[in-house]
Fold these 2 entries.
Entry 1:
Amino acid sequence: MTDAQGNRLLSGPVHTTKIPVRWGDFDRFGHINNASYIEIAQEARAVFAMEEFVERGHAMPAAFVRSMKIDYLSAIMPDTMEVMVETQVVRIGRTSFTTVQQLKDRHGSLACVVECVQITVDLKTGKPRPIEDFERKVLASVSTPEAALGSGENEENEDGED
């Protein structure tokens, strides 16, 4: 779903942060290279977790990336010193949640959209575990209304196990 400006986020709260770019993020063609978009999105998800969980007095949940879809829409050029990243939770399941992140250059132009499915994991066993109630509440605080309403009970094999 996209609006006239290419916005892929839905109605509801959004977490926003700015991630500084590094010299090594640029390739020989003078724009941020493809792998750096993924690193910037990952760094923004870490800031999201720190600000939304840790700063509210909760432990940061262990969440592993299960899948990622990336749409590269335009190049971020060297005149951008920090990338604006908007993160929204668009789906909350039983053991996983999905975020959509929009990466924008210094002019506010949408450069990349990253959709990421993350699985909450028990670090002792390495296996998926249900999202706890407090985690669900925190995720819902920056989610679309539809994601916040989901109970996760209708998920089908989201954790990759039978």
Entry 2:
Amino acid sequence: MFEFLQQLQSSGKPGPLATLLSSVTPDSLKPSYRFTHWVPGQTPLSTNKEVVTAIATYLIVIFGGRELMRNRAPFKLQFLFRVHNFLLSAGSALLLALMLEEIVPIFLKNGPFYSICNTRAFTPRLVSYYIINYYFKYVELIDTVFLVLKKKKLAFLHVFHHAATAVLCQNQLEGKTSVQWVVITLNLFVHVIMYYYYYATAGGAKIWWKKYLTTLQITQFVIDLFVTYFASYTHFAMVRFPFLPNMGDCAGSEAAALFGTGLLTSYLFLFIAFYRATYKKAGPNKTKRAVAEAAGDIRGSANSKVIRRDNRGVAVITEISEE
């Protein structure tokens, strides 16, 4: 199997999954050059102005929508919410498989340092997958729209993470960092599980591993930072501080390296803070309620009671009994 993958990489041909998808997709539906190659000013959402406009629109929509929903009853939207999460879980799985069949041969043939630092590891096919992943980040902004329409709390971590990740993906594409596949593949893996979790719980499934999903997200950022800090260090050591030990240069702009490592570091601390607030400081009953809120699983039932009535409407919280 490994020999087959190495032969694929040597030939420069796409992997079997990419070949299959290309063969079954009609020519009329295949994306044009500007959708598969990063061309600033031509590829959609490739300029700073476009990104700022998109994120500003996102913030206006969610915070403006929250005000519009203030005196309105929440929407249930269970079917649409499940479809949204199913598509993101399945789409993440497909994109992850496509990326792995491109990355694994490079890794096996040339080793880890080459795969994360060499300019030739920034292949045209990987760039196409990076662009698709980038567009996923804008689809994921719909997560917050659902929260607004269902009148759920807009946590800082949620809003910041969604908005900043779209900016991060654009920044890394523009900076041509070869190491970004590590961050993207780990993120896709987590999203396959995370969006399945939301899909399943929205359908009434009782899933016990929410806490471990958060642990997986934190682990993801620890690995991200280990690899990206190494890549950034060896670049800066070689280029700016040659007296320091290093393994050679690492592809990508310095601005992208600094922005990426800085933002990922903030994610790690924010998710650790979320974990501690949700699972460590609360008592058993409060923890269950916090997990339910995080999953968007608070809804009225025959066992619910009204705990607050004000000018914003009636808040119905499902009682969570001890187990």
